[in-house]
Structures are given as C-alpha cells and as structure tokens.
Amino acid sequence: MTLYAQREKFKQVSIKIGLLFSKIPLTANQWTVLSLVPVIFAVWFLMRQDFLAAGVLFLISAFLDMVDGAVARVTNTASKYGAYLDTIMDRYIEGLIIFGLVFAVLPNWYLPVTAWIFAYFFGSFLTTYAKSAAKEKEIIREGKELKGGLLERAERLFILFIGIVLAAFNPLWLVYVLALLAVLTNFSALQRIFIARRIAKQK
Question: Which residue would you say has higher pLDDT here, 137 or 51?
C-alpha cells in the first residue's frame, strides 16, 4: 500500500470517528482538554511503577487527541484558537509524562536515568522551539512552517509509548528508549536549526 493510500485510509477512518464522537455534546476544544485527563492518571501509575496501566492511559489520551481534530473537521468548527489549544495541550501531555518518569524508579545505564530524561526533555523542547522561533524571527514566511527533522511529536510519543509498555516486562528497556530519544530529539533540533540557517542564507 502506498503512503498516499495509507493517508486516504486514515482520513476515512478519521471521518468515521468524527461522525461518531460529534454526536456527544462536546466541542472539539473540549475534547482537546479532555485528552489531558488520562495523562494525569498515567503520571500517578508511572510513579507507582504500573507501566502497563500508564501505557493504556497514554493510548487513551492519544486517541482523544485524534478525536478533537476529527470532530472539528466533520462539524466544520476548526479554528486557529483550536489549533493553538491543541498545540498547548500537546506540550502539557508530553511534559506531564516526562514529569512522571522523573519519579519512576528506573535503573541507571551509563548515565543516571534522570540525565537521559532531562536530555530527552531538552531535545523535545528545542525541536518544538526551533520551529516556532523560525516563524517568530520571520525566517519562515507568514502561513508557512519550518519542515524537517527526524522526529516530530507523534514519532516521539509513539517511541515513548513503546518504551513504557516494555517497562512492564523490564524497566531497563524504558531506559534504553529514553537514551534513544535523548539522542534523536537533540539531533532533530539540530537538523531544524541547520534548515533554518539554510533558509535564512537564501534570503
């Protein structure tokens, strides 16, 4: 199946989800805020070392994050503020998960586990900020976005989700994943910085 066909298939699924959940009396923005609730409970389970429960709640949050966009599209209520709110909630969700990981009892691997966690947090923050800073400093034209970088938010959270689930069997696997994310997120940030530099030089 081609990438285009996969996108079309996902689009059809998204429409069906939007039609189903639009029957519930909640706006798209309310669905966006609701996606934060499972993550708050996931943090509690991370602190209790119940990685499987945390993973399930993480998955529920990701599904609700998809619902808000699907509902906005089928009800024709997509807005700039809705997109802004979704971005803010995305940062809260990722930040809360990282916060929970700080309090989880995980083994060290070459470096203290907190070093891997904060390196991942730093890389994740810089990847996002490199994009918004390019727009803020007008390197990117109005209405455009800085594209590029190995890992976007969706890929970061998918890899982290896999790590959390694997931690239910062996917590060291989660540490391996955090180390991988620490490297890849910072690499992605550097990629965006160099892309912005190349664009700026062309002006």
Answer: 51
pLDDT, residue 142, reads 64
Same domain, yes or no, for 4 and 93?
Answer: yes
Statement to judge: residues 130 and 86 lie in one domain: no
Mean pLDDT of 31-37: 93
The three-state DSSP-derived secondary structure of the chain is CCHHHHHHHHHHHHHHHHHHHCCCCCCHHHHHHHCHHHHHHHHHHHHCCCHHHHHHHHHHHHHHHHHHHHHHHHCCCCCHHHHHHHHHHHHHHHHHHHHHHHHCCCCCECECHHHHHHHHHHHHHHHHHHHHHHHHCCCCCCCCCCCCCCCCHHHHHHHHHHHHHHHCCCHHHHHHHHHHHHHHHHHHHHHHHHHHHHHHHHC
Say whether pTM exceeds 0.90.
no
**Structural domain boundaries enclosing 28:** 1-105
pLDDT at 167 over 80: yes
* Domain end among 54, 79, 105: 105
